[in-house]
Amino acid sequence: MRRLMKNEDGAVAVMASLLMVLVLGMTALVIDVGIVFAERAQLQNGADAAALAIAQECAYQDSCDPGAASLAAADLASANANDGRASAVVDLSVSNTVTVTTNTLTTDGDSAVQFWFAPVLGIESSAVQARARASWGSPSKATVFPFTAPKCLFDQTPTDEEIWITVTSNCTGTDGKSLPGAFGWLDTLDKKSCTATVDVDEIIAGDPGKSGPQNCDIDGKTIMLPVYVAKSGNGNNVNYVIDGFAAFYTTKHSWPGESIKEAGCNNCAGIKGKFITLVSLEDLESFGVEELGGDELNAFFVTLSQ
């Protein structure tokens, strides 16, 4: 009996078996969990790309086509997957927002990642998904070039038609009255500043008779142009009711004394350019935009919120 109790034959095999389970468990942790993380990264890339693309298209079209959005999401989800396969679900139930959820898609139509080593621990597979949300909106507050024009001028000017906005520009407002001198200078942040902070929820003070600010670099740039729907006061004490911000690509400017003479500008004071449709993924700060949620005119900013 004592001899049998001291016999250690087979002990190493038992220990090796136990260690093998531990080794396989660690291998499963490293390899299979790594597979999950890699899969989720691919799905997240697909969800981000799809959400941004759909948001841009909805902003451009001023509406969303659910069918087209679903097709785009599926294509972009698969394009960002290493194996070229992924599924996507699009949610457009929230105004000006799209949510895209991407999921694993295997050759047999399964939605789970199959593990290599984890089955030893009783774990065969795991569902993997990612989600992204993108929103789009127009400015409601921005620090911009201190120049405003009436909304009727924006409404009546075709997109991409080059015009001068000067003191002699005319348009008819919603009340049927003509608005001569269809531009106005806004009060700047300081005397030498080229900017004014405009909030659509506030009455903005202006000075329509002053000269143009000097050394302001606006030519060849897209600016956020505040447009007003009403004004009150005279001379240096004018107040504007701003309705929103329009994207305006400036090609030239003319301040008093610069003696520009061409069609639309005969020694005028004003800016030349065209209203354009702008859908931007750039940082809001690059256009001076501080807040979104204003009336939708022709400028939209797309942001990835999740």
Outline:
This protein has four helices and 18 strands. It is of the alpha+beta class and 306 residues long. The chain has two domains: 126 residues, no CATH class; 166 residues, no CATH class.
Beta percentage is: 35-45%
* Poorly predicted segments: none
Order of helices and strands: HHHEEEEEEHEEEEEEEEEEEE
The number of domains: 2
The helical percent reads: 10-25%
Head-to-tail CA distance between termini: 70 Å
Individual helix count: 4
| Count of beta strands | 18
**Main sheet characteristics:** 7 strands, mixed
Overall pLDDT metric: 82
* Global outline: elongated
Mind telling me the C-alpha Rg? 31 Å
By secondary-structure content and strand pairing, the structural class works out as alpha+beta
Topology:
Blueprint: H1 2-5, H2 11-61, H3 66-79, E1 86-91, E2 97-104, E3 112-114, E4 125-127, E5 129-144, E6 147-150, H4 151-156, E7 163-166, E8 184-185, E9 196-199, E10 203-206, E11 221-234, E12 237-254, E13 261-262, E14 265-266, E15 270-275, E16 278-280, E17 289-294, E18 299-304
Parallel strand pairs: 6-11, 16-18
Antiparallel strand pairs: 1-2, 2-5, 3-4, 5-9, 5-17, 5-18, 6-8, 7-15, 10-12, 11-12, 12-15, 13-14
Give an overview of the whole structure.
The protein has 306 residues and is of the alpha+beta class. The protein has 2 domains: 2-127, no CATH class; 139-304, no CATH class. Helices cover 25% and strands 36% of the residues. The protein has helices spanning 2-5, 11-61, 66-79, 151-156, and strands spanning 86-91, 97-104, 112-114, 125-127, 129-144, 147-150, 163-166, 184-185, 196-199, 203-206, 221-234, 237-254, 261-262, 265-266, 270-275, 278-280, 289-294, 299-304. The strands form 4 sheets. Strands 1, 2, 5, 9, 16, 17 and 18 form a 7-stranded mixed beta sheet that branches. Strands 6, 7, 8, 10, 11, 12 and 15 form a 7-stranded mixed beta sheet that branches. A hairpin with a 5-residue loop joins β1 (86-91) and β2 (97-104). The chain is elongated, with a radius of gyration of 31 Å.
